[in-house]
Each structure stands twice: as structure tokens, then as C-alpha cells.
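Newbie here. two chains, one complex. Structure please?
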Amino acid sequence: MNDLDYVRDLRGDLPPADDATLDRIRTALVREAHQPAVRPRRVWRFAAVPGLAAAVAGVLLAAGPWTGTGDEPPMARELSASEVLASAALAAQQAPVVRPDQFVFIESIQTDASESFPCDGANDGWRCEPERGEPVAITRRIWLSADGQQTGRLHVQPRGSRSGWWETRLEACPRGVWLVTRPGTPIACERTPDSGADRSGAPADAAGMEQYLRERAAKANGGDVFAAASDLLRDSYLRPESQVALYQVVGRQAGVTAQDGVVDAAGRRGVSVGVSRNGVRMELVFDGTTYKYLGERVVRGKTVVRESAQLRVAIVDRPGQLP
Amino acid sequence: MSDATAEVAADPVAVPAPGDGELIERSLAAGESFAAIFDRHGLAVHRYLARRVGHSLADDLTSETFLLAFRLRARYDPSQPDARPWLFGIATNLLHRHRRTEVRQYQAFARTGVDPVAEPHAELVDRVAATAASRRLAAVLAKLPATERDVLLLVAREELSLVEVARALDIPAGTVRSRLHSARQRLRRALADLDPSTPEEH
């Protein structure tokens, strides 16, 4: 027994904190954490984005209440898709102009419970600890060339892993976006109607956006406008006006409903707007307080099949550069 | 289902629990994620504080530590997967306001053999009379400079490495080493005549 052992043992039999004390401390912490750091400054946004106010009103008009088909899950409380989408439109962020040579950086958490993968063998430095039935979750950082002419990057890492980032280059993909499959396999260029991540040329009015989404849907989404809208929100740069137009169009789709009490892949509470197709509900998720776009979910029954939660979106000058 | 959702699925395999760095980074956007940091380390931080100043003060200081950590979370280096040194550092800083309380308790223990910190819980544990070694130890802890006491307790009791202590207290590792060396010399002198093979003398 050396001197340090004596120190270690002194008061070593002190009982630990009881559960009630820990609960009390935890509650105080959670209360603090739930206070929004910055309240949405709506008036300021109207000033900053001319024409947005009128467009937002359009969302309210366009997205009428929807009565349900019976294959929707019961809602936690009444909340209409039109309210959610109107609020989401209000939250559409003013963003800087993106230059063609820049990159759109998006950091997200993605979870996929729809498939399972063998863990040994062909892993590229992943530390594999398979857990049967547990959703596969990764942290994903992607740098997408704004004009689609430059090499972008993709870094992924199993959530919580310390194995380091699995990094890959995204070769210039002038005709589309990249379809990410699994580590170690090539990343395919998927054909989409336009190149690059910069969609600031997308229409800013609902009629134009509807046409735009229909064209994209016909080429890549089996004609599903809601899916095309989800794609557009996920990995691209949209002007706030285009986002507003997009929410207007989403609100017009048949079968769109809202659901409260949704928790996204990052553990954030929110509300979703979604449509059901063959028992599978595709959802856009918005923050429960600010109505900022958070990400998306695909839900079958009560099971989340796939989800993606955006943590950060920024414009940067170089691939690999963090904002 | 549309093909579009396939794009969501960049899809490697393992799902170990996220590291503290990632949780804290995530909590920048989603504050409530920080609760997981408390769930992981709350008990350990409370224990560290309770062993220094007793349960009732530790309750308040644990709460303060995590509230402060939450407010400072943007400064946390997300590449650090273990938040313990950081949290112990914050807790140690908060303890400095209660230095005199801590020292008085060690002094009382050394004098009377009854530990004021343990006393409220005496009925919960099978208390034995304080050993001569613990009374001498308390006397040494009472006399140590606060900076040496911090290092000694973090290393011996919380089993932080020198590098982690340096991170926790925001001082160079060399300083940690010299403070630990100095504290241990005082300790060894105080404990010198105790037979190391039979430390429990009654």
C-alpha cells in the first residue's frame, strides 16, 4: 500500500449520490438546455427577404387542413400540416450567396435500420461492433461542389466511434449527385436533372417550384413530388424564397399530414410533415420550437427505417474545410 | 418507396455509443443532448465533490458544474472523447470558493478521528474507527497548498493521468508532475513510520 493508495481509500466508503438528488440536478440541467438561446427574429427576416411575407401567407392558403385516410398513425395532438409548413417557411434562413467554385458543407447524423451489414472482413478501418437489430448510425460530413465541376469530399464515421473518419473523394459529377452505398465500394454518380449542390437557380414561386419538382420527380423519384422535395432539402443549397415555395408545394400534395412529438436522429424534439405510401410514411422534420428544417425520417408503423438529421449547413471555400 | 431515400443511407456498420465529444458537439444544436453527459458522469463528479466537501455542498456544486459546462460547451474540443477531465476541472474551480470549508473538515478529522464529511451517513455504513493513517492523511491534506491538493486528489482518487489532470486544470503537464511530486513527498514523510504491510492499525 503506497501513499497514493491511502489517499484513494480516504472517504472511499462515502455513499454515492442518491437517485432523487441526481434526478433533481438532471432536471435543472434539462430545463436550462431547453431554453432557446436565440429567439427567432421574424420581423427582421421579413425585412431581410423581400417578398417572403407574401409567400409565407401563400403557404397558409395553399396547405389546407387534411382529413386523413385512416392509414395515418394517431396524432399526439391536433396540428395541421399547413401550420407547420407556414412556420417552417418563416424559419427559412437567409443565407449568403454561394459562388460556383465554393462548396456546400452539410453535417448530419444518419441512421439506417433497413439493412444489416456483415461486420468483419471488408471494413475500411471501421471498428465494427455489430449489434443485431440496432440501427446503423453514422455521422456524415459532405462537401458538395456548388457547380458540380469540382471534386468534393465525404467523411463518414460510425456514430461515437473513435476509429477516425472514413474519407472519400467525390469526383466531379457534372450530371448529378452521388449515391453513397457502403464503405469500400465505389460511389456512383446518379443522374439527376441538374448538377452541383447549388440550387439557387431553383424557382422562387410555387407554380414554378411545382413544375421543377415534377420534372425532378419524373427523373429520379418515380414521379413522387414529396420525395423530390425531400431530396432537394437534404443535400443542396436553396434560397430561402425557394424553400418557401417548396413548402407551399409540399402542402398541396394529397395526403400530407402533420405529426407532433417526433424525435429526430440527433435526439431533437420536433414536428413532422409527411405522406404515407404503401404503409411507409416519409417525413420532413422541423424543430418543435423554431420550425427550422431538421431533417427527414422514413417510418414504417412505429419503426423508424431511415432517418437523417442535419446538424450544420454552411458554405465553405475548400473541400474538407469545417465552418 | 422512392429511390431517393437510398441516398440517406450512407451505411457503414458499427454503432458504439457516441463519444462525449460528439455528444457535446451535438448539444450545440440540440441542447438536450447534453443530458447524456450528465447521465454518464454525474455520479462520478458528485462523488469527487462529496469526498472533498461532503454531500450537501456536493449536491449544489454538481448542479453548478453541469450548468456551467453546458454554457461553456462550445469551447469543448470535440475530438476529446472523454469529458471527465473537463468536468473535473470545472468542479475543481468551483471548489476553490469552498477551500476553507474543505480544510476545516480535514483539520477536524485529524484532531478528533471523526470525519465530518462521513458523519451524516454514519448509520449507512459499517464505520470503523478512523485509522491513524487516515488521520495523518487528513492533516497532510489540510496543510497542502490547494494547487497540490487538486493534483493529488485527481490523480490518486479519480485516477486521471497526468495529461488529463493538465487538461482539467489547464496547466502544463510538467507542473502537474512537480506538484504531484511535492505532495507525495509530504505524504510519505507523514506516513513514514507506519508499517506498510499493516496499514490498518487500531
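Moderator note: Chain A touches chain B through 91 residues (CB under 8 Å). The two ends of chain A are 51 Å apart (CA to CA). Thread marked as resolved.
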